[in-house]
Amino acid sequence: MSYLIGCDVGGTFTDVCLADSRMGRVVYVKIPTTVGAQAEAVLAASAQARAEAGVPADALQRFAHGTTVATNAILERKGGVTALLVTKGFRDILAIARQTRPSLYDAHLRRPDPLVSRHLVFEVAERMDAGGQVVQAPDPAEMAAIAESLLQGAVDAVAICLLHSYANAAHEHAVAEALGALLPGLSISCSADISPEPGEFERASTAVMNAYLTPPLERYLAALSAGLDEAFVQAPVVIMQSGGGVMPIAAAYREKAVHTCLSGPASGMMGAAWTARQAGYLNVVTMDMGGTSFDVGLIEGGDVIRRHDSALQGFPINVPMFDIVTLGAGGGSIATIDAGGLLVVGPESAGARPGPCAYGKGGTRPTVTDANVVLGRLRANRQISGGITLDRDKAVAAINAHIAQPLGISVEEAASGILAVVNASMSRGMRRMTIERGFDPETFVGMAFGGAGPAHAADLCRDLGMRTVIVPPAPGMLCALGVLLSPWTHSQASVVSVVVRSGHHADSAALDVAVGQAREAIAARAAIDGVDPAQVTTTMELEMRYRGQGHDLGVTYVAGSSDAVGDAVAAFHALHAQRFGYQRPEEAVEIRMLRAIGHAPSPDFVSPMLGRAAEGEGDAVMTTTPLWVAGAFREAPVLDRTKMAPGRRWHGPLLIEQADSTVYVGDDAVMVDAQGNLVIELSQQ
Amino acid sequence: MIAIQQNKAILAEILRHGLQAVAEQMGAALVRTAYSVNIRSRRDFSCAVFDARGRLIAQAEHIPVHLGLFGGLIERCRARSGDLPVGAMWIVNDPWISGSHLPDVTIVAPVDVDGARIGYVANMAHHVDVGGAAPGSLSLGTHEIAQEGLRMPPLLLLRDGAIDPTIVALVAGASRLPDMVSGDLLAQVAANWTGVQRLTSLYGRIGTGAFEGAVETLLAATAERLRRRLASLEERSATCSEILEWDTDGQERDLVIRVTLAIRDGVIHADFSGTSPQIAGPVNATWLITTSCLLYVAKTYLDPDLPSNQGLADVIALDSDEASLVNAREPAAVALCTSITSQRTCDVLIAAFNQLMPEQAMAASSGSMNALVVGGYDPVRNCNFSYVETHGGGQGALSDADGADATHTHMTNTANSPIEQMEREYPFLVRRYGLVERSGGAGRHRGGHGLVREIELLADCVVTVHMDRTRHRPWGIAGGQAAGRSSLTVTLDGTSRKLPGKTTCFVQRGSVLTFSTAGGGGYGALSDRPAEMQQHDERCGLVARSA
């Protein structure tokens, strides 16, 4: 037998999926996250899942984990005491950043303080030129004084970022070696090993983040490993990466620590992509709306869209990450009448405390959730997690006092207005994610999760001309399953410089060298990570642009085919036309980066049926509830998601209740597909 | 359709989001297809949406200096060239119509639905070169606008939906970089097409009649929001002056910008009488640039999130006694109106607002965009090159916070070029890029630090510099001290010479340019700065400048 565990830690809940991969049977456990000591809930939930499935510890083959330890360390500034070594003359790389300010008009808003204090930035007298030629070699003797200062500064971790190290890493490696000899055991992150791309500020920022995250990840992963040892679990532990795929624990607290920044959200996107593929959808906009934020992600052709130039909390991070846009709009966003008399929603939020008025935790200002409660889209008196019962009277009172009375309209009109305004702001975010990236939303389906997502998804998607919304079963399980199914992945970037002139045959010699090096690097990484290099498939992507442009597009490169470069350039022209509406085949094309990604095979897995099969028809309707539709309340059915039979269609207006959220269906049809997803077919209004 | 029965306070806010999305998507289209670094990386452009009457209803400005330029644009174009036919687009860069210096080229498109005009969209972008005396069209040494490059009244760049190649040829023919300029023009046209589609779609979703009604509500609400904020300042006034540094034939001259700011009847009155007359040099600014400065300072002090639309025009009033540095008339030269003059005007308005709202007072920031333009022939890459960069400096301290270090302040916010990119693309070796120690003014809250770049030139070059605050330091406030000055020196074979702040000159290969920007002034008495903060400053080598 082959048993796999996938575990995802969220802000509120820890989800564990234990799968018998040959049979497609899944045991699923959800318990509250133990904030500050994540390992406790992870271990408890895993033990519970094994007990429920009757699986002994030694039968587990793999333990895959999506963690928020790194994300939290960044949010709370609880990483290690970090130092940075730079080329002489460039001590203030981090302080200057890109010299811009985050707000044009608010003089108080600042770039975040660098993660390294200025007194822990040290200059090294060395220089490499833009071609990777040595101008001045570093003097190892200089390291003694720096080592002494690092000791005095009680430094936990060091990042090294020297100019042009992406072209030649020799100086960074020499400095690291000299420092390592003086301070054995010190955690050292070289920028050229972590993100070998031009742009010294972003590369330094990435290396510093890696160093900064190493100590908290090492502490956490050590505690987790010890706990698993105690439970006699010997299966290898792998960690979810922000750009998809997993890596072994040892990489996660060393040279790939920075790849865990968005480990948690990545699990959800992997699960979403898997679910969508199972249901037959390859192009998907994901919408995750919680209490305080709205995350939009994109799946194209079955793969989650990645980017290599993300930022977290204002810190640039140049490693592959799923491209997720976050807006400050959620169920807790507060509605108010501004000084000019307009109804505005957010950016202020009631957050978790006091939360929406309907939660009865002391909130007095109306929120988006309160509007949903007033209109019946969230059922009054319904119990939700945390022992909260939705109190409609409190929601009505708040919306009446703050919105309806000042505007001289009914409470229901005011609540509808709050939803229309917050949807307008979220739809702006969805346009940013799709149209601004050159995708036509009408060729995508929407996928909604998060506590508040399914209540808004249909209106948002209709606004963008989309036809279908799917709501997967148990999103928590989706995340855990996403981790469980993720293969080992390693990506390797290298700078290349090839210009292809129109009408000239492109010589691939320079690229062949880079491709060979990338393959070697990936094979070496696989060997270190305990993956058989013979099992690894490597795909290549070239980033290119028309000469003179400022933006790269990535296209697949099939090294070794007869006119590999020519094919890639042709693909570039076509992609440019698709994204930007024109191509310039007469222009020279510059190839600037090679990105190689190695994948091990995915774990064997028979697709499980996630939604519980329903017994009979008609049972699904639990009760009816007043629902505000087109200017009046109508008594509408409330369905129990777990009892909805696949294949049958229902017509709205209706509500569907599931453990963690309520799905609102307006004047549309809804059905359950063979995979257990709700599929809402949007009418064109 | 978005429910027609929505209350107007709700529909107007929905419209605001929709219009903002139109402007943002135009900007995204422009960034993705533009060729020049100015547009695609430094984002030196803005996009705007207008109603059928030509009133500004939304804009996405990436730098505040564009804030006041779109207001009234359609009206000024129509007055000069009649209205836009269906399927046509204007191209215009006349400073007295589109507001800015000549490299800022604006393209305007009409939006027509079923034979009815429902609005206009426009975008303004900074082009690399539109002719004139020196590369970049931002040269010193000019006396009148005719020397600064190609100047266009509103011309029809498109007729019946097709680009007129003779107009593109006209612009390309005037430019030192014709291919790049043509590519950027096409990108601007494409951005307008995006805007036309998006506005048409939004109009359809909101509906005829409802759209127009929501526009009225939005403009009135924006004006009302600012008026309410002004209520507590009624009858307050202040008069302040600032210096703009100039020299004529090697003689230093101090030009004066003077304003009397008064809040009367819910309107901000800014009277610039007493400002120096316009001069025969490129530091004059049009009234539109000065309007940008007033709107910027008003938003900063009163309401940073205030929407930018025509509603604001009713709440401000500018006045002056005659043609002046900040209200220049033809044929004044204006190349430095954004990089220098707008920042100096901004500082005098800040000084005045400090008196109106002492509880929110802020010290002076570095006071210039600190532009550096280097052009010439690169013998290694075997091509001409033109490098343009603006540099941040110290932000002035606030009443409750230190000023930010090495940042763009006030009228601009463009990103720097990475050192590694500079060395990959230009004949430069950068020797230093860092904070200027002891450049922030001391105080309870210290001013931000200026920055310094040392560039070794590996080719003969023509260098143009726009700097201010080389003689007059950024001031502190409430007992805070003044900041360090800006400076430019050229060092060759161990000999250094200082250059004036506004220069175009030849610099020999092998020279090292040292470009230092001013810090920000301090706030409050240094003796009130807590000891632990002073210790922290010392440990980090960031002790403030103290006279």
From TrEMBL, chain A:
Annotated Pfam families: Hydant_A_C (PF19278), Hydant_A_N (PF05378), Hydantoinase_A (PF01968)
Residues of the Hydantoinase A/oxoprolinase domain: 203-490
Superkingdom: Bacteria
Ranges where the Acetophenone carboxylase-like C-terminal domain occurs: 512-668
Domain Hydantoinase/oxoprolinase N-terminal, chain residue ranges per copy: 5-179
PANTHER family tied to this protein: 5-OXOPROLINASE RELATED (PTHR11365), HYPOTHETICAL 5-OXOPROLINASE (EUROFUNG)-RELATED (PTHR11365:SF23)
Identification of the protein by name: Hydantoinase/oxoprolinase family protein
Automatic annotation (TrEMBL), chain B:
InterPro entries, per database record: Hydantoinase_B, Oxoprolinase-like
Keywords recorded for this protein, A-Z: Coiled coil
Domain of life: Bacteria
Start and end residues of each Hydantoinase B/oxoprolinase domain: 10-525
Coiled-coil stretches noted in the UniProt entry, renumbered to this chain: 216-243
Name of the molecule in the record: Hydantoinase B/oxoprolinase family protein
Source organism (scientific name): Acetobacter fallax
Lineage: Bacteria, Pseudomonadati, Pseudomonadota, Alphaproteobacteria, Acetobacterales
